[in-house]
Amino acid sequence: MMNKTEKVVYESSGGFEDKSNILGIVVFSVAFGIVLGRMKESGDPLRAFFNSLNEAVMQLVKVVIWVSPIGIFFLIMGKIIEMDDWAKMFSQIGMYMVTVIAGLAIHGLFILPLLYLIFVRRNPYKYLSGVTPALMTAFGTASR
Q1: Is the pLDDT confidence value at 144 over 60?
Q2: 3-class DSSP string for 43-110
Q3: 122-127, long-range: CB < 8 A, 24+ apart
Q4: Are 122 and 116 spatial neighbours (Cβ–Cβ below 8 Å)?
Q5: pTM of the model
């Protein structure tokens, strides 16, 4: 009995593929920035242009960040309005929340203290009671 293996031939089609060349853009940008930095005073107008362009793009991004919650709200509301049984949906979301909170509680109150006990050989709950004021301050004064 003879074992026969099929011969697979791969052919390269070659040619141009219409894809973005991120590596080329990054290399060009780095090289352009180095050259622009070495030009000293003669490169100042171009540097000022790119600084202004950067500020304009940042302002645009800031507007999009401020407006996007409104669009997301209406996208979600559109899906909620399409639903037939709201009570079932909210009960499923409620069960999901209970599952996530239970998992986090098990992880935070049992798994992590057990790992602390195994590796440090000290009482993890005594450590947690000492850290609690700092954690409450951190959560209470969290900035945006």
Answers
A1: no
A2: HHHHHHHHHHHHHHHHHHHHHHHHHHHHHHHHHHHHHHHHCCCHHHHHHHHHHHHHHHHHHHHHHHHH
A3: none
A4: yes
A5: 0.47
